[in-house]
Amino acid sequence: MDTRRCLLVDAFTDEPLSGNAAGVVPDANGLTETQMQAIARELSVSETAFIFASDQADRCVRYFTPTQEVDLCGHATIASHAHLFEDGVVDPGTHSLETNVGVLDIETAEDGTVWMTQREPSIEKLEIGSEELSAALGIGREAIEEIGEELPVARSSTGLAFLIVPVAFLSPLGAATPDMDAIEALSDRLDVAGIYAFTFDTLRADSTLHGRAFAPGSGIPEDPVTGTASGACGAYLERFGALDSFAEDLQFEQGHFVDRPGRVRVQIRTDDTTGGTTVRVGGRAVTALDGSIAIPPLDADEIIEA
């Protein structure tokens, strides 16, 4: 029976068993979609990254949740490249990565920090009633309405779309009791992966904001620390003028309310000539588990054994 090396790598942290765990299969060449989905289901983390050879870039990646393939995943990208750097497969510098949303630039720094350049932002202001958002998120209307006077609810994407919802204070965001069915229905209606709710009220003085991400439609009730949503939120903040003009390295904290604290670094750059916006998401990662997984034959129905 075929076996493949697989790892659990905790992204956006330098402490094991915190941040956001990603599955990483560093050699996925020859695996079928059915086999990859089975492996992702067996590893049972929010996303697993499968690395392939590529004719278009230095390497190719596909991402699977326990229930489906997704086009882009920030924390699994950080996790997989942190592993490749630690394993000596990639050197410090910029590398190209083929994904379902196109070829992206990935930079690995000398200290092991991985930076992911995301897609050109696409942002659309939406008119959604505070009552509907309050019911879906399990957050009092006043906490949504108060900040809604300054910042709108919007659909934002830097490769994967999220509904960005600002909240006035950390207390109501931390005490949220989300209705996953309502969030899934709202996400389907708006064609987003999920909801990223955030507040500028933070646990750490050096943090820009505190976020929580809910994506039940992708099989992820709450994602501990989310790179794609952080990039989308950073672009949203720039679009609606919520960033200090001198802020160059934003720090987004997330995961504390699910006991998986982590930090995402976000950089926003606007080209004065073209007006284009470049969004980079970065962070560290640490390997928590390194082993192998058995792959059943293509006609086997049994569950994969880790």
Can you tag this structure with a few keywords?
2 domains; 18-stranded mixed sheet; 36% strand; 306 residues; Diaminopimelate Epimerase, Chain A, domain 1; alpha+beta
Task: Briefly summarize what is shown.
This protein has seven helices and 18 strands. By secondary structure, it is an alpha+beta fold. Helix 3 (130-137) crosses helix 4 (141-148).
Topology as a string of helices (H) and strands (E): EEHEEEHEEEEHHEEHHEEEHEEEE
Which CATH class of the largest domain? Alpha Beta
Helix content: 10-25%
Question: How many individual helices?
Answer: 7
Could you say how many structural domains there are in total? 2
Structural class of the helices, strands and pairings?
alpha+beta
The end-to-end distance, rounded to whole angstroms, is 13 Å
Mean of residue pLDDT values = 94
Describe the structure.
With 306 residues, this protein is α+β, with helices and mostly antiparallel strands. The protein has two domains: 2-104 and 286-295, Diaminopimelate Epimerase, Chain A, domain 1 (Roll); 122-283, Diaminopimelate Epimerase, Chain A, domain 1. 23% of the residues lie in helices and 36% in strands. α3 packs across α4 (141-148).
What is the topology?
Layout: E1 2-11, E2 20-25, H1 33-43, E3 47-52, E4 59-64, E5 69-70, H2 74-86, E6 93-99, E7 102-108, E8 114-117, E9 122-125, H3 130-137, H4 141-148, E10 154-157, E11 161-166, H5 170-174, H6 180-190, E12 195-199, E13 209-215, E14 220-223, H7 227-239, E15 250-254, E16 262-270, E17 277-283, E18 285-295
Parallel strand pairs: 2-3, 4-6, 11-12, 13-15
Antiparallel strand pairs: 1-2, 1-18, 3-4, 4-5, 6-7, 7-8, 8-17, 9-10, 10-11, 12-13, 13-14, 15-16, 16-17
